[in-house]
């Protein structure tokens, strides 16, 4: 049985997005619809939502029934928001909100294979397409696995984990979450803070399977192109890999990156800032919210406001597998 889904930083998200009557907003990561419902209740506006998870698409029917004529779900990846919206006849927005990462219902459904706490197939796909986590652990070489677990999991013992995976799969294929978790625990000690040794390896695989960082990079650039002047971009991230990317993007696009009082201003031909930071730094959950929902502890919200400057050329995302050893 899954736990009730609790939207993270919900009130803070609404304050940051500031929905207004007549506005058009995108919930790029629908999940179970907590953000979409809150936006629709906050103003007499129109909300488009995106999700690749078939179970989320089913949940969206309830939101559509609750807010007839004001809500539409699009099946796909949030990194493809520009193409998905164009296909629906939408070319500009007043706000974009992204809640990055895996949702609680996905984690709590054993057969989805996201959790090392419950036995299930080693899948981890948010949608139904592409290689599974089992495909990766059973086919990638030791160097590739070590690089993946180090870069996307920030696991200090990535090489030892990769070596243990290769040894184990030589005996039998790694097909379940419990198999992989036990392999990782055999070479990684439990942290002093109680973090399960398998946490970082599972995170790395999930990010790779779903191209989460590539999706985030593409979504940020697409939001820059879609947002009207004074439109708002709100991003909730749950770990440092995501938040660093959002911070770097907004720092560059707001002109804050690399600014020093000891150096001259930007070059005359430098692109103009496309965002202003509505708040420097991040907004974090309150103590009360963390007590009610421990999973929100690592969440961080960033918000920026679109200027009228032309969008910059998008940076090309890099993949772990494309790097040299």
UniProtKB/TrEMBL annotation:
Organism: Hwanghaeella grinnelliae
Reaction(s) catalysed (UniProt annotation): cytidine(1402) in 16S rRNA + S-adenosyl-L-methionine = N(4)-methylcytidine(1402) in 16S rRNA + S-adenosyl-L-homocysteine + H(+)
Name of the protein in question: Ribosomal RNA small subunit methyltransferase H
EC number: 2.1.1.199
Record InterPro entries: RsmH, SAM-dep_MeTrfase_MraW_recog, SAM-dependent_MTases_sf
Family listed: Belongs to the methyltransferase superfamily. RsmH family.
Pfam family, one: Methyltransf_5
Keyword rRNA processing appears in the UniProt entry: yes
GO process terms (BP): rRNA base methylation
Alphabetic keyword roster: Cytoplasm, Methyltransferase, rRNA processing, S-adenosyl-L-methionine, Transferase
UniProt enzyme class: transferase
Job description of the protein: Specifically methylates the N4 position of cytidine in position 1402 (C1402) of 16S rRNA.
SUPFAM superfamilies tied to this protein: Putative methyltransferase TM0872, insert domain, S-adenosyl-L-methionine-dependent methyltransferases
Keyword S-adenosyl-L-methionine belongs to the record: yes
Annotated positions binding S-adenosyl-L-methionine: 33-35, 51, 78, 99, 106
MF terms (GO), sorted A to Z: rRNA (cytosine-N4-)-methyltransferase activity
CDD domains: AdoMet_MTases
Compartments where located: Cytoplasm
HAMAP family (UniProt xref): 16SrRNA_methyltr_H
Gene Ontology CC terms, in alphabetical order: cytoplasm
């Amino acid at each position: 049985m899954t736990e009730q889904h609790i939207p993270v930083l919900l009130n803070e998200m609404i304050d940051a997005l500031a929905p207004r009557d007549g506005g058009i907003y995108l919930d790029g990561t629908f999940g179970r619809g907590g953000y979409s419902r809150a936006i629709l209740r906050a103003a007499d506006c129109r909300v488009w939502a995106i999700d690749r998870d078939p179970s989320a698409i089913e949940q969206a029917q309830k939101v559509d029934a609750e807010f007839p004529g004001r809500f539409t779900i699009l099946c796909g990846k949030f990194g493809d928001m520009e193409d998905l919206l164009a296909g629906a006849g939408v070319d500009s927005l007043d706000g974009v909100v992204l809640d990055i990462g895996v949702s609680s219902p996905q984690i709590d459904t054993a057969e989805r294979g996201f959790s090392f706490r419950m036995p299930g197939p080693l899948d981890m796909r948010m949608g139904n397409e592409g290689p599974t986590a089992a495909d990766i652990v059973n086919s990638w070489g030791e160097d590739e696995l070590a690089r993946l677990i180090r870069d996307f999991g920030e696991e200090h013992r990535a090489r030892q984990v990769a070596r243990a995976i290769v040894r184990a799969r030589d005996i039998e294929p790694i097909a379940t979450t419990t198999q992989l978790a036990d392999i990782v625990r055999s070479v990684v000690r439990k942290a002093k803070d109680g973090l399960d040794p398998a946490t970082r390896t599972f995170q790395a695989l999930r990010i790779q399977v779903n191209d989460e960082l590539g999706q985030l990079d593409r979504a940020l650039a697409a939001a820059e192109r879609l947002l009207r002047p004074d439109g708002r971009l709100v991003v909730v991230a749950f770990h440092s890999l995501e938040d660093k990317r959002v911070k770097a993007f907004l720092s560059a696009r707001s002109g804050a990156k690399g600014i020093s009082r000891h150096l001259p201003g930007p070059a005359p031909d430098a692109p103009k800032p496309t965002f202003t930071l509505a708040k420097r730094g991040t907004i974090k959950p309150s103590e009360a919210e963390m007590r009610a929902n421990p999973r929100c502890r690592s969440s961080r919200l960033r918000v920026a406001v679109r200027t009228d400057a032309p969008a910059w050329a998008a940076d090309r995302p890099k993949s772990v597998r494309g790097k040299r050893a």
